[in-house]
Amino acid sequence: MDSRNGASSRKRAANVSVSNDLLDQARRHGINLSQALEERLGELIRDKERASWLRENRSAIEAYNRRIENEGVFSEGLRSF
Question: pLDDT tens-digit profile of 33-65?
């Protein structure tokens, strides 16, 4: 995996605190804590980056949508459906 997907080949130890109940359940179900944490962190990071990108590009997206609403798409007269 590459760093764009939230993971890299290098690992670093981190201390985390997990409730006893969750830890017991995870162990009972054979859940790999490191893998689960990496996967969920990757999801959270992608969500945050997506929201940030949308915020940063909101005005351009709105301008594009207004233009399409007013002028249509370039292929408007070419479609046969």
Answer: 999 999 999 999 999 999 999 999 999 999 999
> How many domains are contained in the chain?
1
Domain with 40, as residue range(s), is 32-72
| Burial of residue 69 (number of CB atoms within 10 Å: 0-12, 13-18, 19+) | exposed
55 lies in some domain: yes
As a whole number of angstroms, the distance between CA 8 and CA 2 comes to 5
b/e 31-65 (16+ beta carbons within 10 angstroms → b): eeeeeeebeeeeeeeeeeeeeeeeeeeeeeeeeee
pTM of the predicted protein model: 0.69
Residues whose CB falls within 8 Å of the CB of residue 33, separated by 6 or more in sequence, listed in order: 18, 23, 26
